[in-house]
Amino acid sequence: MGVRRLVRVMGVRRLVRVMGVRRLVWVMGVRRLVRVMGVRRLVRVMGVRRPDGIGTVTVEERDRFEEIKERLRVLLENQITHFRYCFPFGRPEGALKATLSLLERVLMKDIVTPVPQEEVKDVIRRCLEQAALVNYQRLSEYAKLEENVGRLVTPAKKLEDNIRLSELVIEVLQQNEEHHAEAFAWWSDLMVEHAETFLCLYAVDMDAALEVQPPDSWDSFPLFQLLNDFLRVDYNLCNGKFHKHLQDMYAPLVVRYVDLMESSIAQSIYRGFERESWEPVKYVPTL
User: Fold this and answer.
1) pLDDT for 152-163, tens place per residue?
2) Distance of CA 28 to CAs 1, 14, 32, 43, 124, Å?
3) Which of 110, 116, 215, 218 has the highest CB neighbour number within 10 Å of its CB?
4) CA 99, CA 76: separation in Å to the nearest integer?
5) 30, pLDDT greater than 50
6) pTM of this structure
7) Phi and psi of 109, rounded to 5°?
């Protein structure tokens, strides 16, 4: 089959794709390739690289590139949103960090101009906000809180479920810090926001469990101790939004507990005094 007929049957683009540019040039020779295809057609298909590094592409190729670029951006953002499940326990090692770096390059307008850091930060912030919702929804499903929907649940059972959920919440935050914090080192403040958002979602279930507890019951104190012990040793979350909310929720309960303990101790002392009797002791001289 002659070269002209081969080009006419397969098409130039398909021929270049099958054989490769170098092999096609080696087989046909540059002069013969130019004579068969024509200069304009050859430039349009293969492109021309100028000394400044800028190449020529067709409108169709540009649109195809933008389509692939957009699909890649969506894929990368989805992986960052599901970072706990796409990169479990930080594996493969360095993959999450490479994904963040690739996203930054995909957001670039061209190969020369770097994307503004605020723009990258906004994209990652949006991904981590969505990640907090995804992580908490899956955690709630794992804790099987939905099993209680439509059934009469006692306050004690609701508190027990919430304490179990709080243990899982703490475990997730500790895993994020241990396995994923290094990849987000450049955006550590966004990981703090992610943790606060995650805790705020949990706060809704925590408040619902505390609201149904009897006013004079101290059974919820273990929940406060569990969460407070975790938050007070975390530099970023200590006295944060959720920590202050936790303190505000328990402050009236603690004040009431202290008042009742004070009143109970005072009554015990008074009753003890009332049962005591004062009798003079006879003095017996010793020899």
Assistant:
1) 678 888 899 999
2) 13, 16, 6, 16, 50
3) 218
4) 7
5) no
6) 0.73
7) -75, -35
